[in-house]
Amino acid sequence: MKKTKRIISMIALTILTTDYIARAQTIQNAAQANPYTLVYEGALTKNEKGKVNIHPVRYKLNGIDIAANVYTPAGYNPLKKYAAVVIAHPNGGVKEQTAGLYAQHLAEQGYITIAADAAYQGASGGQPRNVDKPANRIEDIHGMADFITAYAGVDADRLGALGICGGGGYTLKAAQSDKRFKAVATLSMFNSGEVRRNGFMNTQVATIQQRLKQASDARAKEAAGGEIVYVGAATPTDEEVAKITTDLYREGFVYYYRTHAHPNSTFKYTMSSLLDLMTFDARSNMDLINQPLLMIAGSKADTRYMTDEAFEKATQSKKKELFLVDGASHIQTYWKPEYVSQIVSKLNGFYQTNL
């Protein structure tokens, strides 16, 4: 049995090395030459008249400097009116990765889109770095709505939202109260509170109180002027990544640290954030969402249970749909062209109907 496991690990490592590392080099070479530091395939490298354009912007949200990219559709005319979509990035992600990919593709469909780095993360301001509190992430989504509805050409009555991974859970919460969002979509929704509290697939329920004590101690250390304690700062080797048994984390490490790495992207967050994360739950108050709701997940995603749980509780949505991307894992919905094209088509139809 041990010999068989070693062989499987060697095969996995070989696949990682030959396929993913070659792909990573291609992506990184392109990223280094990209003036907007975008790391997704097909990313814009310059603005051209008559095509989709990207506009780096900065704005204040509760005194914090927010960095964002606005994408405008081909032939954009600020005197016309366009539907708009705000896009919330995954946990640990930044606007230059999958959030930017979908922002660009939706702009190609005729929408004005915005992808912003969360406060305390990415290129946005806020100290200490990498605070990851649900209230902040939800406020980021409200803030994107504030900014983009005042943007030239945006029809404030046709505003949609798209949240990816952790951004999906926070988008559900934002939409529960913010009725400026007329159509709400999530992709590979990740319930950050449930996972930080119970562990992925409920594997850490027995240690909840222990981890709350660690978070409390970290908060006390911060309050006393001590060092900031972080969680999730590991940088595993290719061999260690290949041995990870869950698709989410194995493919996640490859995506974030190999094929689509960005210097502002990191898995780490302050341990004191767990005081807020562990009492948060994206599933709560889902009956407050009365807007049209589209929840998308890969049929093979090991995170799909989180989408299923939240979708079931959206009992008051005017119309809701669960769309499964056949054969896709969680991370594959971030980048794999054949899955991305399906998702963009589905999102476009949803927004066209409801915006």
Distance between the termini: 56 Å
Examine the secondary-structure arrangement and name the CATH architecture: 3-Layer(aba) Sandwich
Q: Figure out the total of helices.
A: 11
Largest sheet: 8 strands, mixed
Do you know the CATH topology?
Answer: Rossmann fold
Taken together, the total number of domains comes to 1
The helix/strand order is HEEEHEHEHEHHEHHEHEHEH
Number of strands: 10
The general outline is globular
Radius of gyration: 20 Å
Name the CATH superfamily classification. Alpha/Beta hydrolase fold, catalytic domain
How are strands sequenced across the largest beta sheet? Answer: 1-2-4-3-5-6-9-10
Task: Give the uncertain stretches in residue-range form.
Answer: 1-18
What order do the helices and strands come in, and which of them pair?
Elements lengths: L1 H32 L19 E9 L2 E9 L9 E7 L9 H11 L3 E5 L17 H16 L4 E11 L1 H12 L3 E7 L4 H7 L9 H16 L6 E2 L6 H5 L4 H13 L9 E2 L3 H4 L15 E6 L5 H10 L6 E6 L11 H18 L1
Parallel strand pairs: 3-4, 3-5, 5-6, 6-9, 9-10
Antiparallel strand pairs: 1-2, 2-4, 7-8
Helix pairs in contact: 3-4
